[in-house]
């Protein structure tokens, strides 16, 4: 298995020696999901992070009325986990599902903590990922409160350019907080 994609992802923030690369990749476990299979369900305790090498994951929750609210997508070269559950050790609130056949490299929380001991520079790497995620989620919340549906769709297209025509319109609508019909009308106007 090639680890080049994940090593390129890591090298955006920290530099590793060949020995450090070998140590890091030795902790990664390949994992595959078929379309519509779940990595985790609401109520599960998240014990690992997934780095997507091909395919796409989506995380979502379901409200009391049965409506799905898409929190994030993770195409190739993205990380995904239920961060609340991973950090707290409590049952999560997200479902994480494969949108298509998806291959991932899994890093368990235990191995991640050991990695911090063995290679402290990984604390910097995962801190940067967490900070970037926090900024993105804060901006998305502000966008949800202050932007029109069209503006939120435009931002979605900027954030996930490879997914625009790749995933079902229903999922895009659930992510930007509009009905599929409204999204269809917006796209027709473009």
From TrEMBL:
Domain Cyclic nucleotide-binding: residue ranges: 32-117
SUPFAM superfamilies the UniProt entry points to: cAMP-binding domain-like
Top-level taxon in the UniProt lineage: Bacteria
InterPro entries: cNMP-bd_dom, cNMP-bd_dom_sf, RmlC-like_jellyroll
Name of the featured protein: CRP-like cAMP-binding protein
């Amino acid at each position: 298995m090639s680890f080049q994609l994940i090593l390129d992802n890591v090298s955006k923030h920290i530099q590793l020696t060949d020995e450090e690369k070998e140590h890091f990749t030795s902790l990664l476990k390949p994992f595959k999901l078929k379309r519509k299979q779940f990595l985790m369900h609401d109520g599960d305790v998240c014990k690992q992070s997934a780095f997507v090498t091909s395919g796409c994951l989506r995380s979502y929750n379901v409200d009391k009325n049965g409506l799905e609210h898409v929190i994030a997508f993770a195409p190739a070269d993205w990380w995904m986990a239920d961060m609340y559950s991973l950090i707290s050790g409590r049952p999560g609130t997200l479902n994480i599902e494969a949108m298509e056949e998806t291959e991932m490299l899994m890093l368990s929380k235990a191995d991640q903590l050991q990695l911090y001991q063995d290679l402290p520079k990984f604390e910097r790497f995962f801190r940067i990922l967490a900070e970037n995620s926090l900024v993105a989620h804060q901006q998305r919340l502000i966008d949800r409160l202050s932007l029109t549906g069209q503006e939120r769709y435009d931002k979605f297209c900027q954030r996930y350019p490879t997914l625009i025509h790749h995933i079902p319109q229903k999922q895009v609508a659930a992510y930007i907080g509009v009905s599929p019909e409204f999204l269809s009308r917006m796209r027709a106007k473009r």
